[in-house]
Amino acid sequence: MLEKVLSKLEDILHLAGCLCLVCVAGLINADILLRLFANRPVQIQFELTELYLMPALATLSLSRVFRDGGHLALEFTPKDLPGVLGRVISLLRLLLPAAFFTAVTFMSGKFAFEAIAHGDVEYGVIDWPLGWAYAVIPLGCGVLVLRLLHDALIGRAVAET
User: Fold this and answer.
1) What is the number of helices (H) and of strands (E) in the chain?
2) Second label for 13, Cα 20 to 30 Å away, from 71, 117, 138, 143?
3) What is the mean pLDDT of residues 127-140?
4) Cα gap 42→31, rounded to integer Å
5) CB distance 137 to 59 below 8 Å
6) 28-87 pLDDT, tens per residue?
7) In the Cβ-directed half-sphere of 149, how many Cα atoms lie within 13 Å?
8) Is the distance from CB of 10 to CB of 150 less than 8 angstroms?
9) SS3 107
10) Is pLDDT of 157 > 50?
11) At CA 50, angle to CA 49 and CA 56, rounded to 5?
12) Residue 39 CB: number of other CB atoms within 10 A?
């Protein structure tokens, strides 16, 4: 059941990340075309893309792409080592990144929470609340931590890693 819930969450976040990519492409192209033909830029394009869409498209798909084995990886050990050493290395290949992304999740979550609590704002054409822009980073990294721990602890030492 945990696998189904985690997979569904990963799929939803991946879809959101993909939609952010489509929005970035649309906004940038609209900005270019409006500058070219009407000499009028899309006023909100830069802040919306920089503050909200880029962090979302960079982090929301992390876990789904890991699950599918889509990340670039540098292999310096054989995939299948026999015995206890092989099992330990397989676990370390999942638990060490889990520890790193746990730290990223904690620190970015703390940063986002403080920005929300203090009402931090980026001033521009629109006043952009920064806490919600920062919140996608601990969300995406946190789901990746859940995936890494799930794969390590369920005993499914993923061959794709």
Assistant:
1) 7, 2
2) 117
3) 94
4) 5
5) yes
6) 999 999 999 999 999 899 999 999 999 999 999 999 999 998 876 666 666 677 778 888
7) 13
8) no
9) helix
10) no
11) 75
12) 7
Under 8 Å between Cβ of 158 and 151: yes
CA torsion through residues 76, 157, 143, 63, sign: positive
The single residue listed with the structure tokens 């192209």 is 29
Beta strands in 26-149 (DSSP E): 121-122, 128-129
Burial readout 40-77 (b: 16 or more C-beta within 10 A, e: otherwise): eebeebebbbebbbbbbbebbbbbbebbeeeeeeeeee
Pair 65, 15: CB distance under 8 Å:
no
3 state SS of 78: coil
- Give the whole-angstrom CA distance, residue 15 versus residue 65: 12
* CB contact set of 139 (below 8 Å; sequence gap of 6+): 13, 59, 60
